[in-house]
């Protein structure tokens, strides 16, 4: 796996890749771009390793790491980085019920699906989102009270079991 910095695996005609490129440029984040030469008929080993489930681009690789596979110091670093991102979101949320204010909006819809992975991260990295980011967790619970969200999101325990299965399949301890 690539070491150091941000690597973007992409394909020239993919709008999903284009939007990541735009976001990285806008944020002033330097990145190494790697074109998937043949996204339809053959995937590169790096893509298969970095995105073994979906095998799709875009894929962002940061410091050559994948959170589920990391161990020891690497895992601790990944955990701290993840917590930093959560805290950034929490700051943005502030005391508002939703990211846009009183109304459930587009940003809530974009972000809430990731909350069903929190349990998995907590189990692997031994921390509590509730303790570290209570306001963010309040937002998660509030969103989950909505029928639309409750219907769409899988049970976090099911996500955890799935990740365990994938790790087993990939031979990751
Ligand atoms: N939901 C994904 C979609 C990514 C996607 O569909 N990527 C296409 C390129 S436009 C891909 O990698 N296709 C390869 C394949 O389906 O095997 C996203 O928003 O990033």
UniProtKB/TrEMBL annotation:
<dbReference type="InterPro" id="IPR004046">
    <property type="entry name" value="GST_C"/>
</dbReference>
<dbReference type="GO" id="GO:0004364">
    <property type="term" value="F:glutathione transferase activity"/>
</dbReference>
<dbReference type="Pfam" id="PF00043">
    <property type="entry name" value="GST_C"/>
</dbReference>
<dbReference type="InterPro" id="IPR036249">
    <property type="entry name" value="Thioredoxin-like_sf"/>
</dbReference>
<protein>
    <recommendedName>
        <fullName>glutathione transferase</fullName>
        <ecNumber>2.5.1.18</ecNumber>
    </recommendedName>
</protein>
<dbReference type="InterPro" id="IPR004045">
    <property type="entry name" value="Glutathione_S-Trfase_N"/>
</dbReference>
<feature type="domain" description="GST N-terminal">
    <location>
        <begin position="4"/>
        <end position="97"/>
    </location>
</feature>
<dbReference type="GO" id="GO:0006749">
    <property type="term" value="P:glutathione metabolic process"/>
</dbReference>
<keyword id="KW-0808">Transferase</keyword>
<dbReference type="GO" id="GO:0005737">
    <property type="term" value="C:cytoplasm"/>
</dbReference>
<feature type="domain" description="GST C-terminal">
    <location>
        <begin position="23"/>
        <end position="162"/>
    </location>
</feature>
<dbReference type="Pfam" id="PF13417">
    <property type="entry name" value="GST_N_3"/>
</dbReference>
<dbReference type="InterPro" id="IPR045073">
    <property type="entry name" value="Omega/Tau-like"/>
</dbReference>
<dbReference type="InterPro" id="IPR045074">
    <property type="entry name" value="GST_C_Tau"/>
</dbReference>
<dbReference type="InterPro" id="IPR036282">
    <property type="entry name" value="Glutathione-S-Trfase_C_sf"/>
</dbReference>
<dbReference type="InterPro" id="IPR010987">
    <property type="entry name" value="Glutathione-S-Trfase_C-like"/>
</dbReference>
């Amino acid at each position: 796996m690539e070491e150091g910095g941000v690597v973007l695996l992409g394909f020239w005609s993919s709008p999903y890749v284009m939007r990541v490129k735009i976001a990285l440029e806008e944020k002033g984040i330097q990145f190494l771009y790697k074109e998937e030469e043949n996204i339809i008929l053959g995937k590169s080993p790096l893509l298969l390793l970095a995105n073994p489930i979906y095998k799709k681009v875009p894929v962002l690789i940061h410091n050559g790491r994948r959170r589920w596979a990391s161990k020891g110091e690497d895992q601790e670093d990944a955990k701290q980085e993840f917590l930093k991102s959560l805290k950034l979101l929490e700051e943005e949320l502030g005391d508002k019920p939703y990211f846009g204010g009183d109304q459930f909006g587009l940003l809530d819809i974009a972000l809430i699906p990731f909350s069903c992975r929190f349990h998995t991260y907590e189990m692997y990295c031994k921390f509590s989102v509730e303790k570290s980011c209570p306001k963010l967790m309040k937002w998660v619970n509030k969103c989950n009270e909505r029928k639309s969200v409750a219907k769409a999101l899988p049970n976090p325990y099911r996500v955890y079991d799935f990740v365990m299965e994938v790790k087993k399949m990939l031979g990751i301890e």
